[in-house]
Amino acid sequence: MVVNCQQVWKEISNYIEGDVDAGLRVAMDEHFGTCTRCKSVLEGTQNVVRLYSDERMIEVPTGFGRRLERRLTQEARVRRSPWSTWSAWLVPVAALALITGGLRWANSLTVPHPLQSEHAQPGRNIPPDMVVVVSAGAKDFHVPGCDVIHNKDKIRTLTAKEAIREGYVPCVRCMRKYLQIASISPASSEPVAGLSSSVEAEDRARSR
Amino acid sequence: MNVVLSNPEQGTTREEDLIAQVQRGQAELFYELVRPYERRVYAAALAILRNEADAEDVAQEAMLKALANIRQFRAEARFSTWLIQITVNEALMRRRRERTRMTEAIDDHRDEEGEYTPRDFADWREIPSEALERKEVRQKLAEALASLDRKYREVFVLRDMEQLNIQETAEALGISVASVKTRLLRARLMLRDLLAGGWEQGWFSRLPFEKGTKPW
Questions:
Q1: pLDDT tens for residues B114-136?
Q2: Residue A179 located in a structural domain
Q3: Which candidate in A40, A69, A74, A78 is best for mutational testing of the B interface (most B CBs within 10 A)?
Q4: How far is A60 from chain B (nearest CA, A)?
Q5: Rounded (to 5) percent helix, strand, coil in chain B
Q6: Which residue, among B40, B114, B91, B168, has the nearest Cα to A9 in the 3D structure?
Q7: Same domain assignment for residues B195 and B158
Q8: Helical H runs in chain A?
């Protein structure tokens, strides 16, 4: 491979970087051996790279280091202050957690546990012949006149027993007293049995 | 060039210790960690902003940002490179903000077409690094650098003064590797010509060169 001066100038920076392939490097080395102009360009460029890479070439304003140190020291102090570290926040957070937890525990002793979610909860001891209403598209059965009935114009009247058989669950508003009974009943962990126990008892009695 | 480079083994170990300690919360050791690089951080900011007050401010901000994010630093990267990249990013953001306030002309990001032809072909001779002991020599070199277009100056400073590699320079500035190479070539050749011209004007006149020969 033979290279001319223009090609050498184009690649001279990559040559200094060691970023030319072996063939080109050999060709350029040969060229530098014979061309004083390109040799001059190479050596002058190397001068530039060497001189500017010297740390002494970086001048900083008077007092730069001192001002930087002061600012970083201030920042370090702020970070060291008691409220700046995450561990310091553990104390009030733990205290708050204790208070909240304590209150909840105390509450649990005096009032029945509120239901986690009152929807789709089983009822208990619902009178089987109780007249209830259901509406199209809803999943709950209600005491007639309950004010949270959806689609009031499409209601159907039936007994609680029928409603339970059809898969409806008691309304959390109007049937609340049956739900609260369910929540403190030991049988509440078996929702299906709990939901329809009185209905089933009645069925059994009838079949006898 | 700095303590770490002059004694790599010991320097690196000390640096790693410091990083680990700062990462564990000993923020008061951070200045000791960054002190070897404070000049380079400043130079990187100055290359982009060209204003000493802004450069100092950005250098400080970049250091604070580095401290705040020290836990994200991973040992596979060079700490100095990480620091410089944060600084460049900070400086570029500052410049973008400034530009929206001032109606400065948008810089031309295109690389100039065509090849750069060196102008001076006199005999070469190495300029000894001792020349940099003289303030006027440093001053002239700094002026030559400052006279370059921004796009050439930034690449040259990051690669040749900050010692980022080509890839890191491209990433820091958000430009392609090919652009970095093109700009670097042109910056180096232009500086060479400027320094050759400086020779004519006697920048290096008190250096021990033989009469009649130039350093390139």
A1: 678 887 776 656 777 888 888 88
A2: yes
A3: A40
A4: 6
A5: 70, 0, 30
A6: B114
A7: yes
A8: 5-17, 22-34, 36-52, 64-80, 86-110, 160-165, 176-184, 191-207
Helix, strand or coil for residue A176? helix
Interface predicted TM-score (ipTM) = 0.81
What letters, b where the CB count within 10 A reaches 16 and e where it falls short, cover A51-61? bbeeebbbbbe
- What is residue A157's DSSP assignment? E
CATH code for the domain of B14: 1.10.1740.10
Q: Tokens 């000049």 correspond to what residue?
A: B39
Range of the domain at A52: 1-81
Q: How far is CA B188 from CA A18, A40, B143, B149, in A?
A: 15, 13, 14, 12
| CA-based nearest residue in chain B for residue A10 | B115
Question: For residue A90, is it within any domain?
Answer: no
Percent of chain B with pLDDT over 70: 77
pTM of structure: 0.63
Which two three-digit tokens encode residue B192? 């060479």
Q: Which of B117, B132, B185 comes nearest A57 by C-beta?
A: B132
